[in-house]
Predict the structure.
Amino acid sequence: MANAKGSPNLQALPTSPSPAQTLPSGAVFDALKMILLGAPLNEVLTTIIRLIEAHSTGMRCSISLLDEDGLHLHYGAAPNLPEAYRAATEGVRIGPNVGSCGTAAYLRQPVFVSDIASDPRWVKFRDFALQSGLRAAWSTPIMSHDGTVLGTFGMYYSEVRQPGPSEIQLIDNAGRIAGIAIERDRSQTALTRAFEQIEKSEAQLRHIVDAIPQMIVVMNPDGAVLYMNQTMLDYSGLTIEEAMATDCRHRTFNQEDVARIRGERLESLSRRVPFQNEKRILRKDGEYRWFLFHYNPLLNDQGQVIRWYATGTDIDDRVQAEERTRYENLALREQIDRDSMFEDIVGSSEALRKVLRQVSKVASSDSTVLILGETGTGKELIARAIHRRSNRAERAFIGVNCAAIPPSLIASELFGHEKGAFTGATQRRLGRFESANGGTIFLDEVGDLPTEVQIALLRVLQEREIERVGSGRPIPINVRVLSATHRDLNTLVAEGKFREDLLYRLNVVPIEMPSLRERAADIPLLVDYFIDRFGKKAGKKFRRIDKRTLKLFQAYSWPGNIRELQNVIERAVILSDGDTFSVDETWLKGQTPQFAGRTAGLNGALQRQEKEMIEAALTESGGRVSGPGGAATKLGLPRPTLDAKIRRLGINKYRFKVQRSN
């Protein structure tokens, strides 16, 4: 039973190691299953405690229940707390200075005490706690859906410590699950008491049922609605006459759900045993929410059903959390399954080290970053490096290839949609931004976004909120945005294809990825890396690399950059025999067997020709690289690509401006 608010210098204390931020889904489902199957409350609460205690060595937990008088706490479960301490604190009266649990229940807010020995709210129970080896105590009130305090969830440690964000989330999650169990037990108890009075007075039963803060429906043996309690009527906006109409089910429940469970429901009604199902109910404001319904039969002396009683529990938050978890897991599996360019950043060239220095500087901030560079240079890898080194590293990294999604679907993919927002939108769906909430989203090929999506993205960056397709309700969002493109966004702005204000928002910190031509010194390292990686995958071991192959690699211009190098090596590993790695020269883009031996000379000639073409374009444009009539437009190249070529070929673009002015 612990203290209210932590001491003023709580932040100065050392932070304890953080357990996992989320509970294992399998364990959570086991606990919920116990609740749904009607296991005794003490067993359910003990299971929840053991689930939480497994997260940290030395942690001891308790769940206390508030009496009906709202004044005293009694232990519901505390399997590992010392018996002497439990005896001393059993039935304590809540108040502003009653340890942690007593104060949390009184103040209706979490209370974190890092040191029981010095906290003034532990004066009355300090000796009992210290003698029992308890030094830190944290507690959060367990609340019902309507804001009533049901009890408290407490965590105890034998050393001085304060909770980290993940521990606060853990205790909050535990309190929520315990709240479901306690509230359902109390509702079931209230419902049982109501059933015991049914023979005395139908009117009295309805009065009691209406007072229960849970949806209750009374049906005849074939499932037709006879009565809905006031909670159900208030939620749905129906009158009692409308509730008893034959079309009530079609007006109240989601029709896809009704069709899905129709056969199962009819079969369950005929078996005369309790059953349950999940479906969405239309709230009077037009929004659907998921509910879990428990059906219980009332039998006469001959074992025949004379009534069915159904209770509904709101599980929408749980369903949405499960959907978010499934979506994040799907995105993770897609990322793992996708053949990434490489697993780590490989190279030591100055061009690459410059990029990594920029990554180190920008990672700790929340600034937007625009990663520029040719296709195949590893822009997504840099985005992941920024995320891993940021304060958001423990949260989701969601990647989106904007060029791979049809324009008609990209808004729904990014921001989600409501049921009925468009043809085929049969239910609400979370978008990538909501899945990345608290973490990082990477928008690859951002230059391909349609104009209307650019406007929505600008709002996300400015207002930090999104709107699902088909909804006018803003949703706050906390996401860091990283983006990348191989296109010249300045040219797209000049052509009216990309919003200038969005470019300013995205381009707070630009990072330009060098092409493989600009980091030729890294080619031997990359070759070794890919040979080892694909060799292990194919079960092959290469003892040496053919010298001619390595020279060929270093002389080739690699227009496809690292992605092309990766593909060539993977193919060679698969097709190579023996322990010597070699590559067929014809695999390299633009190479033929008769010219393979003269690659270096050919590349030199190509570079001279390329330099002449760029200089001619700069002469015509008066030294302008981007914009209408600029050299990039004339050559049909993105601005970053042309800039890289100008640097590589040693062209002074400013002298062309002087020539034109003269």
